[in-house]
Amino acid sequence: MYYSDDLVEEVRSRNDIVDVISGYVRLQRKGSSYFGLCPFHSEKSPSFSVSRDKQMYYCFGCGAGGNVFTFLMEYEHFTFPEALKTLADRAGIALPQGEASGEEKRRQSLKSSVMELNKEAATYFYYQLRRENGAAAMRYLKNRGLSDETIHRFGLGYANIYSDDLYRYFKGKGVSDELLAQSGLMQADEKRGMRDKFWNRVIFPIMDANGRVIGFGGRVMGDGKPKYLNSPETVAFDKSRNLYGLQFARTSRKKNLLVCEGYMDVISMHQAGFTNAVASLGTALTSQHASLIRRYTDEVILTYDSDEAGVRAALRAIPILAEAGVKARVLNMRPYKDPDEFIKALGAEEFQKRIDDAQNSFLFETDILKNSYDMNDPTGKTAFYEALAKKLTGFEQELERETYLEAVASRYRVSPDSLRKMVNSIALGGMRARRGETPRREHKERAEQETGVQKSQKLLLTWLIEYPSLYGKVKEYLRPEDFSGEPYRTAAKLLFAQYEAGELSPAGIIDHFEDPQEQSQVAALFHQDLQVNSDAERSKALREALQRVILASLDEQRAHLDPTDMDGLQKLIARQKQARRLPQIEVR
What is the pTM of this model? Predict the structure, then answer.
């Protein structure tokens, strides 16, 4: 659904950011801003700033920042439409309902109907567990160590022993066979017609991140096969895009997610206080799972079973998570098989210790790799070191590669220099490559120049926001095109356009960037902190920042100027002279 910029701005302007964030963070006023402990990282001294004037927040500790939409998207893990809807409801603004195509309407109607059936089926299963015929299922859950509170929290239920029990219930309510078949709650039998997908099983409702029932898992209480049975893919249920327990884990406020294998692992871990546990739904971890995880955290602790299958699952998951930008560590549960068994035997405190000591995923991979070689045989040991060197070439950043190289050299008792030579040999295809090198001093000066320009750009953007009268004083000298790199240039263009239109809205600039990380970067542009003791120092700092940005821009333009463009060259020279003779400008 597309929402106009005017509507988005109206919703944003009707939700004061200080009022909204005060509902999540305790804020205290200091000067023109409000400060509190950052909700996005652990800290003891408040560095989280919220500005009513800018309608923006920024953490000077971790760099998180944005507007009121960004905050809800980061804190509640909402999508932008979800954040917009929440704030629109808060302000009493009715969002328009767009016209969908006929096919979209049919799909949405079917999805709504299936979701409603799922909700009612979950209630039915929940009720059956508490009836006399659900006594065996209740005993099973109790014998697994689950409390009444946990059984209620996860909405656990029971599907009766009769294979048409739920079918007859829904037919009594007039639900069509076609809809029941599409819901995944029924399956067609050629001899007996429609019958229940789940019967004589303990039922685990599967919910999406917002707590809506999208499917079910069923477990036999005896030795029947299959042990676990899941809902098929439906219009409401895609097992590769959902995680069991996410509706609770997403609000746990833990820095990571514990990814395990099954329903009971998740439930027992939540009961023990590990409310950040989730599990994939009867399938291996997928790239869609990893993308979903990335919305909530950048670190995962893999708590798969300690058997061979669990090791293979961890080895498959690690590169998938890495591709999505999620760091992984691997928890060692030996001598126990799974989290449920471990917690029952040693308790939650010991499990937390194992979490704290979870192994780096790369070192986990290399330990498994080592098991494939005979380390008592020189040939086998050399082959292992070659395989190790090959894995190290996968690190693109030199510093990261060097850090891991030193770690594995120490771990496996090999000379770092020898391993480094092997890595370089593999990386260069066995050939030495010599390239012309820029002198170190030139590298350093260039890096410092770039850093200085970026800081100056941030200072100009910050002061143009904090001192609105400044725009009229500098626009004669400074242009949006003088800002180099992103998001500097785009932010400058939007800011200058707002001034020309007479509608200054720093928070509105952030709305033009969709990615939350980009929004934090843009927020940082408007929060350059420069300690000055007087108006004269501030004026001097402004002049230096203007000169640095403008002259760097002119150097860049000159480098790309057509040598025959004499008119363009004269204009650059004129601007260069103007920049070098900038007057002192008051910053107020």
Answer: 0.62
